């Protein structure tokens, strides 16, 4: 995909009046949601749930893109249409979550770094071939007493930059998501300071 093609996808994702549907819950996360309504979390039930979301009438009037989990990118509608193809046919751009979640940053109590760079050289091209047009990587930044440290911010910034470069090289638009968590007892002034630093 050329830079021009990447620009077209990026602009379409931020179309006025539309948003991006995050349907990228991992299997453990969606299991918790299913457990809360006493529903069994199987590959089939997860597929049916996501098909219900994607086939909602007029969804494309409000949704520009859909972030998928690896499992979902490889699934199909009941009639056998791969989800990325179905979404595209409805005017919604299929995307993929490529990070592997936030993990404890060794030797930095209370801080996290997002994992997933291992194997990332190959995955974006595979995801593109499966129909994804964009990708998402989330870096979690906790705010508290003495955190985030500069090291934590730099570690996550480095991962975000490598992810973005690899995605662009493979023809995927990268969504870079540094998320400053609002949890905790810090005030809005500290939150603004951290957000500006990050």
Automatic annotation (TrEMBL):
Root EC class: lyase
Keywords: Glycolysis, Lyase
Pathway field: Carbohydrate degradation; glycolysis; D-glyceraldehyde 3-phosphate and glycerone phosphate from D-glucose: step 4/4
E.C. number: 4.1.2.13
Pfam families assigned: Glycolytic
GO biological-process terms attached to the record: glycolytic process
Listed GO MF terms: fructose-bisphosphate aldolase activity
InterPro entries: Aldolase_TIM, FBA_I
Family, per entry: Belongs to the class I fructose-bisphosphate aldolase family.
Name this polypeptide is given: fructose-bisphosphate aldolase
Native source organism of the sequence: marine metagenome
């Amino acid at each position: 995909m050329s830079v021009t093609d990447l620009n077209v996808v990026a602009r379409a994702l931020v179309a006025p009046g539309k948003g991006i549907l995050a349907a990228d819950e991992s299997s453990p996360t969606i299991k918790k949601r299913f457990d809360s309504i006493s529903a069994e979390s199987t590959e089939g039930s997860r597929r049916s749930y996501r098909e219900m979301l994607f086939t909602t009438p007029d969804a494309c009037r409000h949704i520009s893109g859909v972030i998928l989990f690896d499992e979902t990118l490889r699934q199909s509608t009941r009639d056998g249409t791969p989800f990325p193809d179905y979404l595209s046919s409805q005017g919604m751009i299929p995307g993929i979550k490529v990070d592997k979640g936030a993990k404890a940053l060794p030797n930095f109590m209370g801080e996290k770094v997002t994992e997933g760079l291992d194997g990332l050289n190959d995955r974006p091209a595979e995801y593109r071939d499966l129909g994804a047009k964009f990708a998402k990587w989330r870096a979690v930044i906790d705010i508290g007493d003495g955190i985030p440290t500069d090291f934590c911010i730099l570690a996550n910034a480095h991962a975000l930059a490598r992810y973005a470069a690899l995605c662009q090289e493979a023809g995927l638009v990268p969504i870079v998501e540094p998320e400053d968590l609002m949890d905790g007892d810090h005030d809005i002034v500290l939150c603004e300071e951290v957000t500006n630093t990050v």
